[in-house]
TrEMBL record:
InterPro entries: Aromatic_deC, PyrdxlP-dep_de-COase, PyrdxlP-dep_Trfase, PyrdxlP-dep_Trfase_major, PyrdxlP-dep_Trfase_small. GO terms for molecular function: aromatic-L-amino-acid decarboxylase activity; pyridoxal phosphate binding. Keywords: Decarboxylase, Lyase, Pyridoxal phosphate. The lineage of its organism: Bacteria, Bacillati, Actinomycetota, Rubrobacteria, Rubrobacterales. Its EC number is 4.1.1.28. It is an enzyme of class 4 (lyase). The modification N6-(pyridoxal phosphate)lysine is found at K308. It comes from Rubrobacter xylanophilus (strain DSM 9941 / JCM 11954 / NBRC 16129 / PRD-1). SUPFAM superfamilies: PLP-dependent transferases (SSF53383). Its cofactor is pyridoxal 5'-phosphate. This is Aromatic-L-amino-acid decarboxylase. GO terms for cellular component: cytoplasm. Belongs to the group II decarboxylase family.
Length: 483
């Protein structure tokens, strides 16, 4: 593993950098860090009864003013570990609330390495940018997207925004510099698209009110006929359609919009199709669910979060584009302090962010070390976990399954005898489960009915643990329902 140093000038002695002290005992501190990390990894497999509390004296230190004098690294490290240990971590196998991750070990190694070298990705980094591009290609191959260019971003929100800014520039050339010049524009997504789409439209300057929420079909998917109707109406009213955002895996129930039919509509109207697959797109890689994503290859752009169903740490999202040049058209700039060679742009000319970490290294390491086949096994397992939970709920007289799982999300209600208001009961149960700590579920609402929502994206979760979701909900819910 150790690299041999090339012939070079002697190292500058540390004492010449007197006010920039290195750790007095670098290796000792790193050994302690490694011990702490291994302990945390081991702890993820131990069921918890409740998240540990911060404790009063640590809580008091967290509101202390900026220290003027140096402090000990051991104490700072120990406080940081206690703070993180007391925080909700999606790496625990029964943390099924929201859309977590697995927190693969490769991601931790990659994060430490990327932070150590801190490569500058705004300009051609001499290697790190090649990793970035390879990770984008691997990711696109994995999900089946015909990549021309793309970028790693800080999250699904930023990936959606990046795509919409590129779409706006195609629909309204010059709008990035000149604004909309009084032109009216609109974007389209399903009623259950993630709120980040609305936020992205707002940031694009189109106005959040310009988002057309297209009604759902019986499988909670965007209705292409209603989309087409909305497009006709807007175009007739002189409104410019900027983009249609189809969701490939809604946050609430995992529904996948009919991409092929939506692509037909977009093609007829010449509108940019963006697929928000922040959560669901990795399921395009496994045969069981791949058919749901037919038409993805026709999209102009797609979002996929590696920090969700691909197991690496936050934040690591990617925006993928089918045509070269769209990102530069949206973000390219001539900076006098960032000259580039001829017409070859700097990487920063394809991204919204300037300084950014080498996020892609986490995914690159994970793909290299585990391989695509292992990923497919893991994803299939999470799909099976969702199906197992749905099957158990179907058989349980005191539970109601609110939808068949399309991907790995399941919404359900506990309906014990004695609970008079099911909405109130399920909201209280979600709070109680979070307090209890053994199983972390998110409260949600499907068709106005309050429920519990479990999302299986953690590769650590086992079928036995899936059964505990029901037993713990029944135990705590039963207690709440008893008069
Ligand atoms: C479908 C979808 N899009 C976008 C987002 C936003 O992603 P991020 O939290 O990475 O910004 C989410 C988050 O859950 C999501 O489920």
């Amino acid at each position: 593993m150790r690299r041999r140093r090339a012939q070079q000038d002697p190292a500058t002695p540390q004492h010449e950098r007197a006010d920039l002290p290195a750790l007095a005992d670098r290796e000792g501190v790193l050994e302690e860090l490694v011990r702490v990390i291994c302990e945390a990894w081991a702890s993820f497999d131990v069921p918890r009864t409740a998240e540990p509390q911060l404790g009063e004296e640590l809580a008091a230190r967290l509101v202390a003013p900026l220290p003027e004098e140096p402090g000990g690294v051991e104490e700072a490290l120990s406080d940081a570990v206690r703070v993180l240990d007391a925080s909700v971590s999606p790496s625990r196998p029964l943390n099924l609330g929201y859309i977590g991750s697995t927190g693969l070990e490769m991601g931790v190694l990659a994060s430490a390495l990327a932070a150590t070298y801190d490569a500058n990705l705004a300009v051609t980094a001499g290697g790190a940018d090649l990793v970035e591009e390879q990770a984008l290609r691997w990711l696109s191959d994995f999900v089946g997207f015909p990549l021309a260019e793309g970028a790693f971003t800080s999250g699904g929100m930023t990936s959606n925004l990046t795509a919409l800014l590129a779409a706006r520039e195609r629909a309204l050339p010059g709008s990035r510099a000149g604004g909309l010049y009084g032109r009216r524009a609109a974007a389209y997504c399903s009623e259950e698209a993630h709120h980040s789409v609305v936020r992205a439209v707002e940031v694009c300057g189109l106005g959040g009110g310009s988002v057309r929420r297209i009604p759902l079909d019986g499988r909670r998917r965007m209705r292409p006929d209603a989309l087409e109707e909305a497009l006709y109406q807007d175009v007739a009213a002189g409104i410019v359609p900027v983009a249609v955002v189809a969701t490939a895996g809604t946050t609430l129930t995992g529904a996948v919009d009919p991409l092929d039919e939506v692509a037909d509509v977009c093609e007829r109207h010449g509108v940019w199709l963006h697929v928000d697959g922040a959560y669901g797109l990795p399921a395009a890689a496994v045969p069981q669910t791949a058919p749901l994503f037919a038409g993805l290859e026709r999209a102009d752009s797609a979002t996929v979060d590696a920090h969700k169903w691909l197991g690496v740490q936050k934040s690591c999202s990617a925006v993928l584009l089918r045509e070269t040049g769209r990102l530069r058209a949206a973000f390219g700039h001539e900076e006098r302090y960032m000259l580039h060679e001829g017409d070859v742009p700097n990487p920063v000319d394809r991204t919204l962010e300037y300084s950014r970490p080498l996020r892609s290294l986490r995914l690159w390491m994970a793909f290299r070390v585990h391989g695509a086949a292992q990923y497919r096994i893991w994803i299939r397992r999470t799909l099976e976990n969702a199906r197992l939970l749905a099957a158990l709920l179907r058989e349980a007289p005191d539970f109601e399954l609110l939808h068949e799982p399309t991907l790995s999300t399941v919404c359900f209600r506990h309906l014990p005898p004695g609970a008079e208001d099911p909405d109130e009961h399920n909201l209280r149960l979600a709070r109680e489960m979070q307090r209890d700590g053994r199983v972390f579920l998110a409260p949600a609402s499907v068709d106005g009915r309050a429920c519990l929502r479990a999302c299986f994206v953690n590769f650590r979760t086992t079928p036995r643990e899936v059964e505990r979701v029901i037993s713990v909900a029944r135990e705590l819910g039963g207690r709440l329902a008893r008069p």
